[in-house]
Amino acid sequence: MTRYTPDLLAGDLADLTAIRRDIHRHPETAFEEVRTAQIVADKLTSWGIEVHRGLATTGVVGTLKGNRPGQKTIGLRADMDALHLQERNDFEYASSIPNKMHACGHDGHTTMLLGAARRLAAAPDFGGTVHFIFQPAEEGLGGARVMIEEGLFEKFPCDVVYGMHNMPGFPVGHFAIRTGPMLASSDSWEVVFKGTGGHGAMPDRGTDPTFVAAQFIVAVQGIVGRNVPSSQAAVLSVGHIAAGTPGSPNVIPSEVLIRGTARSFSAEVRNLLEKRLAEVAAGIAQAGGCEAVSKYHRRYPALVNAAEQTSVAVEAAAMTVGRENVEANTSPLAGAEDFAFMLEKKPGAYIMIGNGGTGEGGCQNVHSPLYDFNDRILTTGAAYWMNLVQLELGDAA
């Protein structure tokens, strides 16, 4: 079995860097990845890979059959979309589109999978089928869920699926993964506290929802501290508060809107957070003579890696960079990923690839206006995908 390393793919780095920087310069946000999808489709077609387009509007799936017998099929997924963010970098390939930026590295994810696809198409020495899944709209709009709803796994059956994401602050040449819950579910919630409001000089003549809202914001942290089991993890954060008008600070508003995010790693804790947010809001509102209207929106489920596929991913990463550079039991992260929808349907695993630490390219955190994907890891990621294919399909007969 061939062992692919970044050094073995070093000759591809210049071309991959050019592709990545071109995508970076022309970022496209959710379900609008028209130019990016065209680049992907054109590249795959030029390498002799069968291309299907149209799932989730801009999704692209490339299908490559090995030249050896085998029935197993695997899916390799990369996301393509950018964020609504104004880039503050000043290098020559910085975003040319105002208020849009590849600030999470999806330009790099797309390029790494393209790099693997080109190499595998040139020498498909495996048995079975690889589906290269280029997904739109990971950033908040659930492109993975939409692709599934529109028949992804019916049109392109996969026995297993794999995903990968870059990790700033983690060294170049390193990978991190764990079995079980690796990323949290991501939900949003909102509470509207309703009172009568009134004159700020005479609060006794009405009911004040701002006083109730202030108590609720503090009490929210008690849900995690006193209701979530100590063996579990969860996060509740307030991200938006709206009430009153700036021009009338002497008026107690009649309504206060609070919105936030909820993160958890199990269905039990997720259910608990939804239940307790509504209960705490209602209880505090009643004590203050107000009404609480609560809504809880389930967005991305927790991302859970299957044990068998995690072992395969660890071995593929070890083939790529050496076992000593693979963290096989990393701590769970409270971030979320819509690849979780695919892992609800198929067994698989999601791995992190180091994007570099302080003093290295790409060291800014994701979603920062100063973030950049580290081109040094393009061949590392491509080699990982190729080793994964060898492990899953190389021995098929």
UniProtKB/TrEMBL annotation:
The keyword Hydrolase applies. InterPro entries: Amidohydrolase, Bact_exopeptidase_dim_dom, Peptidase_M20, Peptidase_M20_dimer. It comes from Reyranella aquatilis. It comes from the Bacteria. It holds the Pfam family M20_dimer. Keywords: Hydrolase. This is M20 family metallopeptidase. Signal peptide: none annotated. Residues 187-279 form the Peptidase M20 dimerisation domain. NCBIfam families: amidohydrolases.
